């Protein structure tokens, strides 16, 4: 998608940025508009740039070279459409590859520690436990769609590859808090169902879907590898809504729900097996994300993610 970039900074920096854009001959810049004195905070000028997606990365690199964020601000957004007879060929063949900064914003927006994030993770665990208890696949799949359980894991490898160090500890915090809430939600549902049923049903641990998400198999690992790759690629395209499909592929939510169920019913072997399955998927997601982000950095993104 084409992009709009709005830069607010000092007049001197705007002068230098415009000279650099002209010197570098960046292809895909459709229009430049300068509004002198339009920025009140920070005081200075506003530079509006309309450009193709491919031109976004070199322009952001220029802004980073001039350290615009130190004394200014940068706003990027997707345009619904962009028309220019002189640049139509560039517009028509552009990709949907986003920039590091937008990927980081997407990951923070969906998984920063907040009531909504923790509530979604808790409810996902509660629903998943109900599906596992009743051995109903569609209920378990519904639980996988409720919570953004993939993105907090991706924050860690993304921070490692892009050197966005603040994403690593915050990613660990989001993973720990989110999945603890998920297990707690599963434990709550299990406690209610156990009380209603007068105990766990016979053969609970041997039910089809309980067995599947508490064991490690080659087909399951292979699907998780593909899911981890797909999820990282989707993040690179800034299509977070499509990670719903990734979550259905991975075992992250049901395996952690198995942990909560096992603890409540006193089957610690079941809980341990669910935890191992969860750890395997976590390792695969992190490893595949490192591969995808590392490859993208070598080929397309040759700077750290942040403008500061």
Please report the first level of CATH classification, the CATH class of the largest domain: Mainly Alpha
Kindly provide the radius of gyration, computed on alpha-carbon positions and rounded to a whole number of angstroms: 23 Å
Count the DSSP helices: 13
Quaternary state of this entry equals single chain
Distance between the termini: 25 Å
SSE arrangement, N to C: EHEEHEHHHHHHHHHHH
Structural shape: elongated
User: Spans with pLDDT under 50 lasting ≥5 residues?
Assistant: none
- The number of distinct structural domains comes to 2
Structure characteristics:
Alpha-Beta Plaits, elongated, alpha+beta, Glycerol uptake facilitator protein, 2 domains, 308 residues
Structure description:
The protein has 308 residues and is of the alpha+beta class. The protein folds into two domains: 3-95, ACT domain (Alpha-Beta Plaits); 101-299, Glycerol uptake facilitator protein, CATH 1.20.1080. 63% of the residues lie in helices and 10% in strands. The protein has helices at 11-24, 53-65, 88-92, 100-111, 115-134, 137-146, 151-162, 167-197, 208-212, 218-236, 243-249, 252-265, 268-299, and strands spanning 3-9, 29-39, 44-51, 73-78. A four-stranded antiparallel beta sheet has the order 2-3-1-4. Strand 2 and strand 3 form a beta hairpin. The chain is elongated, with a radius of gyration of 23 Å.
Kindly summarize this structure in a few lines.
With 308 residues, this protein is α+β, with helices and mostly antiparallel strands. It is built from 13 helices and 4 strands. Helix 7 (151-162) runs antiparallel to helix 8 and helix 8 crosses helix 12 (252-265).
């Amino acid at each position: 998608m084409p992009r709009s970039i709005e830069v607010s900074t000092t007049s001197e920096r705007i002068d230098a940025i415009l000279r650099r854009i002209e010197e570098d001959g960046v292809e895909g810049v459709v229009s430049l508009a300068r509004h002198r004195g339009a920025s009140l905070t920070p005081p200075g000028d506003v530079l509006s740039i309309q450009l193709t997606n491919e031109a976004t990365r070199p322009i952001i690199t220029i802004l980073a070279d001039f350290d615009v964020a130190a004394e200014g601000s940068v706003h990027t957004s997707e345009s619904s459409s962009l028309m220019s007879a002189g640049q139509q060929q560039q517009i028509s063949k552009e990709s949907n590859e986003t920039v590091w900064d937008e990927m980081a914003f997407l990951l923070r927006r969906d998984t920063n520690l907040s009531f909504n994030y923790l509530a979604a993770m808790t409810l996902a665990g509660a629903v998943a436990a109900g599906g596992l208890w009743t051995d109903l696949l569609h209920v378990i799949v519904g639980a996988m769609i409720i919570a953004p359980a993939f993105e907090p894991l991706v924050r860690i490898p993304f921070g490692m590859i892009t050197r966005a160090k603040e994403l690593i500890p915050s990613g660990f915090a989001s993973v720990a808090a989110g999945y603890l809430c998920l297990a707690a939600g599963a434990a709550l549902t299990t406690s209610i169902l156990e009380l209603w049923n007068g105990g766990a049903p016979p053969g609970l641990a041997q039910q089809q879907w309980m067995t599947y998400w508490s064991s490690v198999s080659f087909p399951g690992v292979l699907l998780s590898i593909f899911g981890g790759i797909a999820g990282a690629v989707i993040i690179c395209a800034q299509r977070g809504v499509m990670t719903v499909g990734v979550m259905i592929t991975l075992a992250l939510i049901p395996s952690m729900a198995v942990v909560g169920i096992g603890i409540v019913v006193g089957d610690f072997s079941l809980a341990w097996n669910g935890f191992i399955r969860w750890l395997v998927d976590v390792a695969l997601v992190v490893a595949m994300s490192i591969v995808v982000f590392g490859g993208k950095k070598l080929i397309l993104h040759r700077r750290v993610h942040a403008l500061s």
